Amino acid sequence: MHASVGYAEFHRRSIEDRDAFWGEQAALVDWHKPFDRVCNYDNPPFARWFEGGLINLCHNAVDRHLKDRADQNALIFVSTETDTERTYSFRQLHAEVQRMAAILRAEGVKKGDRVLIYMPMIPEAAFAMLACARIGAIHSVVFGGFASHSLASRIEDATPVTIVSADAGSRNGKVVPYKPLLDEAIALSVHKPTSVLMVDRGLAPFTSVPGRDVDYASARQLHLDARVDCEWVDATHPSYTLYTSGTTGKPKGVQRDTGGYAVALAASMKHIYMGESGETYFSTSDIGWVVGHSYIIYGPLIAGMATIMYEGLPIRPDAGIWWSLVEKYKVSVMFSAPTAVRVLKKYDAALIAKHDLSSLKALFLAGEPLDEPTAKWISEALGKPIIDNYWQTETGWPILSICNGVEKAPTKFGSPGKAVYGYNVKLLDDQTGEELVGGNQKGVVAIEGPLPPGCMQTVWQDDERFVKTYWSSVPGRMVYSTFDWGIRDDEGYYFILGRTDDVINVAGHRLGTREIEESISSHPRIAEVAVVGVADQLKGQVAMAFAVVRDASLLTDEAAKLKLEGEVMRLVDEQLGAVARPSRVQFVSLLPKTRSGKMLRRAIQAVCEGRDPGDLTTMDDPSALQQIKDLLAKTVT
Ligand code: AMP
Fold first, then answer.
1. Which residue, 432, 451, 483, sits at the end of a domain?
2. d(Cα 143, Cα 133) in Å, to the nearest integer?
3. Residue nearest to ligand 1 atom 7, measured at CA
4. Mutate to test the pocket of ligand 1, among 496, 521, 600 (most ligand atoms within 8 A of CB)
5. How remote is the CA of residue 236 from the centroid of ligand 1, in Å?
6. Distance, CA 367 to ligand 1 centroid (Å)?
């Protein structure tokens, strides 16, 4: 549509001629009834996109492709945990989604009702999400790694009619039972669902609750020939809620609309990911996270692409597994996270290079800062463009990226690129709220309203919290805060310097832990590092670093550790100045992270300060935090 338009003009138009721009993008999806108004921003900061339009996400993801590609792959399920590989064509996916939709209807689920999905990465999870969209129910997927307390708070907030779950997930060959956690969560929650639909994978025997639990396989048999038409919903009808943790204990239900989301995803598939119908998209995320919603399920399917749903680790059976899938299914677009690449980096790059990757156009990475050594390593190993995306659960699709589908542009190491079309990104002084217009000034990354289509509408059932949390933190102006620090160079490339809430202050100097991490990880012997600010009587805070070394044998060699610690400190001195030098650099074999790969810096910080690390239910491997505790205990004595 705009192949000849330069990116700067494309972006300018998306802001200055917003309605015309998005009105055109809206043609990328099917509408049952056209919208009357592109953007209603009469009541800021609440944006209502495509008012008056009637649409259905499931129709756009599945039904509309039946005409041209009914027998092409839609969903490719690969589990290296259970050694299963199964493909579903669009026709088969259409049938399965209708069966699931019929089951949900039989359980009394109506338009606007919530369905909570607590599932491992199996096709039935995708069927359930799409079935909800089909009947206008609002899904709320809760990551399978959450334990009962976190799950209970989400059940209470979402008040689902039905919960869809499974007996178990599996991780690294170990069965992880879900049902006991779910039963406990329901017992803890004041709200009780009327029914629980159980997919029995035969991994972990469980007890059914009579009158409440429904066996999916038997229910499916009753609805094999189900025909459930798409329920046309208002464009502003909520499609889902997805919980993200905030600074308070209570999770926020990020609420997304339907029409704006469909348009935003379709446009992103074209302008950012450059995925074409008939090709294959492989996102290694999990349906429990926003990337899973947007780029395992809805985005690729809306674009008529096959999507790979992968259950397993990137290194099992060996570190070549993902790349063998790229070869086998001719993946053209791949999406992962830097943390996964750092895991792969410990293995031989030949495991990647031995596969035929000629179908792959680019690898997109998002979710956390992409450090330069990691970006360089994967870029050399793949020989493909590596594109860093910056976004949040709240936005649903990238805020910063290179948009090669509009105009090819170079990437810069350490930068997720420029403001994506639709996002009026500003850098603001956190104290005064003033806009920082000159290059290379550090400010809060903020977005001027209205947020573009696809971004959060509000906090579920809590408009006030939406306004208070996101739109009131910058003094003197109503602007959306990302809570991230950033700088922008003279060419408009942004660099993210970490969360505004992770900032540390050493002797009056403000430092982003991210900057120190970047510096430390440029040492060739360091694989990964976490830096936290720890309370210090003299300096207010000091930086403490915990680094994973590439060669684990160093961990038992005290003299070598001391030497490396000195080298790392000198490196930081050299790169950032002595003010940023960590008071200690300790070496560990792994770092505490959530299962989605986010570093649990707050937990590390709490442990360093002798405080309770708080809720650790999302932590991947508890031994990581224990290692830090042990190191600290040794240091004190
Ligand atoms: P989540 O909502 O869990 O996806 O977390 C969003 C946060 O992750 C952002 O506010 C950033 O702090 C961080 N983040 C996401 N993508 C990037 C990226 N490409 N570079 C740096 N930080 C990122």
1. 483
2. 19
3. 392
4. 496
5. 26
6. 4
Task: Mark whether 147 and 191 lie in a shared domain.
Answer: yes
Q: Are residues 521 and 459 in the same domain?
A: no
State the greatest distance between any 2 C-alpha atoms of the chain, in Å, as a whole number. Answer: 72
Residue nearest to atom 21 of ligand 1 (CA): 369
Phi-psi region of 518 (alpha: psi -120 to 50; beta: other; left: phi over 0): alpha
Number of domains in the chain: 2
Which of the listed residues 483, 498, 515 is the one where a domain comes to its end?
483
Residues 449 and 585 both lie in one domain: no
d(CA 112, CA 454): 18
The predicted model scores a pTM of 0.85
The torsion defined by the Cα of 131, 135, 139 and 144, in degrees rounded to 10, comes to -20
Q: Is residue 332 part of a domain?
A: no
| Same-domain pairing of 161 and 285 | yes
Residue 409 has pLDDT above 80, yes or no: yes
CATH, residue 187: 3.40.50.12780
Count of Cβ atoms closer than 10 Å to residue 353 Cβ: 14
99-141: per-residue pLDDT in tens?
999 999 999 999 999 999 999 999 999 999 999 999 999 999 9
Dump pLDDT digits (tens) for 297-307.
999 999 999 99
Which DSSP category does 294 fall into? I
CATH label of the domain that carries residue 522: 3.30.300.30
CA separation for the pair 357, 288 (Å, rounded): 28
* Domain encompassing residue 585: 507-635
Q: Residue 574: inside a domain, yes or no?
A: yes
- Token pair 């590439």: residue: 550
Ligand 1 shell residues, CB under 6 Å: 244, 290, 366-370, 388-393, 416, 482, 484, 496, 499
